[in-house]
Amino acid sequence: MEFITYEQEGYVGVITINRPQALNALNSQVLDELSEVLDNVDINTTRAIILTGAGEKSFVAGADIGEMSTLTKAEGEAFGKKGNDVFLKLEKLPIPTIAAVNGFALGGGCEISMSCDIRICSENAMFGQPEVGLGITPGFGGTQRLARLVSPGMAKQLIYTARNIKADEAYRIGLVNAVYPLEELMANAKKMAETIAKNAPIAVRNCKKAINDGLQVAIDEAVVIEEKLFGDCFETEDQKAGMGNFLEKDKEKKLKVVPFQNK
Ligand code: CO8
Q1: If you classify domain 201-255 with CATH, what class do you get?
Q2: Which of these is catalytic: 111, 184, 226, 235?
Q3: What are the backbone angles phi and psi of residue 147, rounded to the nearest 5°?
Q4: Does the beta carbon of 59 sit less than 6 angstroms from any atom of ligand 1?
Q5: How much distance in Å is there from the Cα of 2 to the middle of ligand 1?
Q6: CATH homologous superfamily for 4-197?
Q7: pLDDT tens for each residue of 171-216
Q8: Which atom of ligand 1 is closest in space to residue 109's alpha carbon?
Q9: Fewer Cβ atoms within 10 A, N terminus or C terminus of the chain?
């Protein structure tokens, strides 16, 4: 692969978008490579994924403007679909994903971060949907996910004005969960990923699915989704060990057994 690297440390996988000549902008090849990497994540040996950008300046500076500049209407729609398909694959990955946003997250960069479960960023991060200034809409899920993540009013303001916001404002509006000095960002992303990885993996996956699927439907349907995924945890080794250890008051065993159970 030319533009994506994947590294696995224990249960944690790190995907890095590495196209420094364009501040990690997403062209078709980057999207194809990302799709392939996601297809190859072994969810039985990986319990959390961190997505970041190479370098100290940019997470992802958007979709590739050069590639988009000559598209026809049909090609534009197809490019939008290509991005959306990859971002949906990322969003639906059964295991938790953390975007470690280390600089510019503009346009498609903000959009890919919103396809992750959790966003944390560095102090130099900058978020925004500058698309209307380029004569297009945020077409990699931005009109949908930003409105769901912050609020429709805030999303509309950011999208209509095309104003970029710094890390502190992204934190204030709930777009990111935490802000760290750049040099501490990856350590904190890994710490969070490892904390997640210590918990029962089937239960964690089912929580992700319950939240994601439940948010798409009315509450009475959502609680049925939750019930099924709750029931699905029973009779697993993790459920037996986790509850058994609690009842036996064996904290040592709990720590030793639960993190190493798998489906
Ligand atoms: N696409 C292509 N190349 C880019 C992009 C990009 N999005 N961003 C930066 N680059 C390139 C620059 O052209 C430059 O290349 P070169 O050295 O060959 O001239 C190199 O990266 C370095 O960039 P700058 O010299 O501009 O670096 P600065 O530090 O001066 O500025 C900025 C950094 C502020 C990030 C600036 O590069 C910038 O404004 N970039 C564009 C940001 C942007 O508008 N992003 C949104 C793009 S649109 C989008 O993402 C749509 C998503 C939905 C698509 C739906 C499809 C239908």
Answers
A1: mainly alpha
A2: 111
A3: -65, -35
A4: no
A5: 19
A6: 2-enoyl-CoA Hydratase; Chain A, domain 1 (3.90.226.10)
A7: 999 999 999 999 999 999 999 999 999 999 999 999 999 999 999 9
A8: 50
A9: C
